[in-house]
Design brief:
It contains three helices and seven strands. The chain is of the alpha+beta class. The longest helix has 14 residues.
């Protein structure tokens, strides 16, 4: 399977939006189309040679915070999130000296993966339900 990294500012094309929403809802059932409501965002995703979105995220340009990192359940545990994060870090390093993210405390798999990517815990967030993590991009 050949993977391609895609990134855009603002909202991606509507066909891609639908695919991103499907992956988002599989990971975060309560998420809606709000991921596309704000133009000051960078969207990044991995797609395969059949143009399926396998893993995606977005970055809020105002806060340099990564949100809604998720992978299609059929493609989990294959390193796609790590690949997506590495490509995203490489793509935005001239825009942000530091990137931030939040991860639910009970999501031990994601927490380990972010630590391997050199993100470090800098505090609690969301009333103690999540951890705030940061990493220098350069």
């Amino acid at each position: 399977m050949k993977l391609r990294f895609r990134i855009c500012t603002g909202s991606p094309a509507s066909t891609v939006q639908k695919k991103i929403l499907a992956v988002n809802r599989a990971s975060f059932p309560d998420s809606g189309s709000a991921v596309f409501d704000h133009e000051r965002r960078i969207h990044a995703w991995l797609q395969d040679d059949r143009r399926r979105v396998l893993s995606c995220l977005y970055i809020d340009l105002g806060t340099a915070t990564v949100w809604n990192v998720c992978t299609d359940p059929s493609f989990r545990r294959q390193g796609l999130m790590s690949l997506l994060m590495k490509e995203t870090l490489r793509a935005v390093r001239t825009l942000f000296p530091v990137l931030h993210l939040h991860v639910r405390k009970e999501n031990k798999t994601a927490l380990r993966a972010y630590k391997k990517l050199r993100f470090r815990v800098v505090g609690d967030s969301f009333a103690g339900e999540a951890l705030r993590m940061s990493r220098k991009t350069i």
